[in-house]
From TrEMBL:
Its EC number is 2.5.1.17. Residues 7-173 form the Cobalamin adenosyltransferase-like domain. It holds the Pfam family Cob_adeno_trans. It comes from Aliigemmobacter aestuarii. GO terms for biological process: cobalamin biosynthetic process. GO terms for molecular function: ATP binding; corrinoid adenosyltransferase activity. It catalyses: 2 cob(II)alamin + reduced [electron-transfer flavoprotein] + 2 ATP = 2 adenosylcob(III)alamin + 2 triphosphate + oxidized [electron-transfer flavoprotein] + 3 H(+); 2 cob(II)yrinate a,c diamide + reduced [electron-transfer flavoprotein] + 2 ATP = 2 adenosylcob(III)yrinate a,c-diamide + 2 triphosphate + oxidized [electron-transfer flavoprotein] + 3 H(+). One of its GO terms (cellular component) is cytoplasm. Belongs to the Cob(I)alamin adenosyltransferase family. PANTHER family: CORRINOID ADENOSYLTRANSFERASE, CORRINOID ADENOSYLTRANSFERASE MMAB. This is Corrinoid adenosyltransferase. Its main location: cytoplasm.
Length: 190
């Protein structure tokens, strides 16, 4: 269990922070940027939840929890010490990716195929889900960039890739199952 009795520690005042394995790195490091952008994605999920109810809210709550798992995964670079550690680091697993795929398939089955790109908007929930989608795409880019320099759990990359798709399809569901989607009209204002 985590116990946070004091919020500020002053240990980051010189521009460094601690990773999950205790190593100190610059706050602008690619790893910190990656899990920081995952945290930002989670904040947008919190905004979307303000407009969600029932099963939608429950799904977003699961995703929010998964994003904390993902942040914990990314803040601990010791992928090969997992099996021997006294307290193995938390890692995103294939089952979390599979759950997103299953939910995407179930939602997509309720929608008519798109014949145009859609613009963010429609309902308040859909607009917030599109914000979640774009921020999660940025998080994915950060994690993919990190993976070119350091080892990253491949399931973390897969999870973010599926997550942005989940937000896209969920945004359509939130727009009366696609009937209230705002369609792009190429060259409309020329």
């Amino acid at each position: 269990m985590v116990v946070l009795s004091k919020i500020y520690t002053k240990t980051g005042d010189a521009g460094e922070t601690a990773l999950g394995n205790g190593a100190r790195v610059a706050k602008h490091s690619n790893r910190v940027a990656a899990y920081g952008t995952v945290d930002e994605t989670n904040a947008t999920v919190g905004l979307a939840r303000l407009h969600a109810t029932g099963d939608f809210d429950a799904a977003l709550a699961r995703i929010s929890n998964d994003l904390f798992d993902l942040g914990a995964d990314l803040c601990n670079p010791d992928l090969h010490k997992d099996a021997t550690a006294e307290y193995p680091p938390l890692r995103v697993i294939a089952g979390q990716v599979a759950r997103l795929e299953s939910e995407i398939d179930a939602m997509n089955a309720r929608l008519t195929p798109l014949r145009s790109f859609i613009l963010p908007g429609g309902s308040a929930l859909a607009a917030h889900l599109h914000l979640c989608r774009t921020v999660s795409r940025r998080a994915e880019r950060c994690v993919v960039e990190l993976a070119t320099m350091e080892e990253v759990n491949p399931e973390a990359v897969k999870y973010l890739n599926r997550l942005s798709d989940w937000f896209f399809v969920a945004g359509r569901i939130a727009n009366d199952e696609g009937s209230a989607d705002v369609l792009w009209v190429p060259g409309l204002t020329r």
